[in-house]
Design brief:
single chain, 499 residues, mainly alpha, 74% helix
Length: 499
């Protein structure tokens, strides 16, 4: 790596950001349609689908740190990250397409095996791209505020790509006919949807990887060394033993459980709780694109004014209150009746505000985790973006499986029927779904907010870390940094982790 990096061009920033579309299209497809497709269209029980999703998430969580640690130490003429990114393009695209086109005539056991094989392939090769791609941001932008702007641009593309593809699904590929046929419950439309999504994933991966390849000379190169498994394990433990990382991870775990449960139930609420048509659902998704984009754009300015942590807490808490308000209003009997224009208008307002707050929160949370990288490097003497990002993902994905399982358990507990028709589900079942949803989401998001309040890296500390790293490299160019000595804790009051 050379220290004389020229300023990032707009083209490089855009090529980097467009890579987020690939992961967003995949995530939105899995979270919005997969449960519905394999439960209501294919016919697998909801608990079976959620069990398979949990297995895939646990597998993904285990693979993440392995790929992260390997990519941190990988040597090639294309650097540490780009070989993995190129390798992901074809397998993840093909596997995503196959996921939505299972062969007909399979038994339930064979269908479960097919679903699991496709999901594991998607998860594995998505990690090959998404993890190295996300770790490029801290290297491309080291400044505290500039980093937030780059992450904001990346998430803006994710919002436009992921939600935009969902709108196309509702309005084009899975469009509901005037007579009620077609739609998300008809199998035929998933062929065109999956083909278009797979091609988009493939194209965005190649564009982003090739478009950032000119930055390789300015990126950190893997160290030349031989290391044993035991030594690598010690390095992993030392890197992850960081207070800010632990707090950020705990916050992310609570959020991941809540988001996993909410996303899997989202389409059930839209179709059956609010009894919206697919065109109305598409309208809400369109509004959420605009709302999320506004939040993503506003996040850097909010962080600059009040700091990333305080900005994230403010937006996080506000998003929670706004997001649960329509369900609370319906349960206490003050929400307009389903099918009325007033109800839909209120849902549009709630969606716009909630997604703006949630989008801004997402940018700031990712940027906070990125700031841990330099803090960990000061303490350990090693640059470990891949390890830190993958470990953060590991814990989130492990527990997000719990969220997905919760959604399946909710549907099973309230005896939600198969082949359900909009407006024909027992009102008591719908009421119970709302009653269970509120405490789960409220408690989990609330715990995440409380945890985030203990995060201890602000702009001043980040800039101090950068000064220490610059001074250490000037004193010993080309050599690994000496780790900071760990302070001895008082005997009477041992600390659970190093500050």
């Amino acid at each position: 790596m050379t220290d004389s990096r020229p300023p990032l061009s707009l083209a490089t920033k855009l090529f980097y950001a467009v890579g987020a579309v690939a992961n967003a299209v995949k995530l939105r497809g899995l979270s919005t349609f997969l449960m519905l497709f394999y439960n209501q269209v294919v016919g697998l029980p909801p608990t079976t689908v959620t069990f398979v999703l949990m297995i895939a998430l646990v597998f993904d969580a285990i693979v993440d740190p392995l790929v992260g640690q390997i990519s941190d130490n990988f040597k090639s003429r294309l650097g540490r990250r780009h070989p993995f990114m190129y390798a992901a393009a074809i397998p993840v695209s093909v596997a995503f397409y196959l996921l939505w086109n299972p062969p007909t005539g399979l038994s339930d056991g064979q269908m479960v095996a097919y679903l699991l094989a496709c999901l594991l392939t998607v998860r594995l090769f998505d990690t090959f791209f998404e993890l190295p791609h996300s770790t490029l941001a801290p290297e491309l932008a080291k400044d505290y505020d500039e980093r937030t702007k780059l992450i904001s641009l990346r998430m803006l593309f994710a919002v436009i790509g992921g939600l935009g593809m969902t709108v196309l699904a509702y309005q084009v590929f899975l469009k509901e006919n005037p007579d009620g046929t077609g739609g998300v419950l008809a199998r035929d439309g998933y062929f065109a949807y999956s083909l278009c999504a797979a091609l988009l994933i493939f194209t965005c991966i190649l564009l982003s990887t090739a478009g950032t390849q000119n930055q390789i000379p300015y990126l950190r190169q893997a160290p030349t060394r031989k290391i044993t498994f035991r030594a690598m394990a010690r390095e992993v433990a030392a890197t992850l033993n960081n207070r800010a990382f632990v707090i950020a991870t705990i916050t992310g775990m609570f959020v991941a459980i809540a988001v996993g449960a909410r996303n899997a139930l989202e389409i059930y609420f839209g179709l059956y709780f609010w009894e919206l048509s697919q065109s109305q659902l598409a309208g809400l998704v369109t509004v959420s694109v605009a709302g999320s984009a506004m939040g993503v754009v506003a996040a850097p300015q909010i962080a600059k004014r009040i700091g990333k942590k305080h900005g994230a807490i403010l937006m996080f808490a506000s998003a929670l209150l706004v997001g649960v308000s329509p369900v609370v209003a319906r349960l206490v009997g003050v929400m307009p009746d389903n099918g009325t224009g007033l109800l839909y208008g209120l849902l549009i307002v709630e969606t716009a505000i909630n997604t703006a707050l949630a989008g801004g929160t997402g940018v700031l949370l990712v940027s906070l985790v990125a700031d841990v990288i330099e803090d960990a490097e000061v303490k350990t003497g090693r640059r470990s973006e891949g390890l830190l990002m993958s470990a953060d993902n590991l814990f989130k994905k492990l527990v997000s499986g719990v969220g997905v399982f919760i959604s399946g358990a909710v549907l099973a507990a309230i005896a939600f029927p198969e082949n359900a028709k909009r407006g024909q589900v027992d009102p008591e079942i719908i009421h119970n779904m709302g009653l269970i949803y509120l405490p789960v989401i409220g408690v989990l998001f609330g715990l995440g907010i409380v945890s985030l309040s203990f995060f201890n890296i602000d702009k001043a500390k980040h800039e101090d870390n950068l000064r220490k790293l610059a001074a250490a490299r000037s004193a010993a160019p080309g050599q690994a940094l000496e780790p900071e000595p760990a302070p001895e804790p008082p005997a009477a009051s041992p600390q659970p982790f190093k500050a």
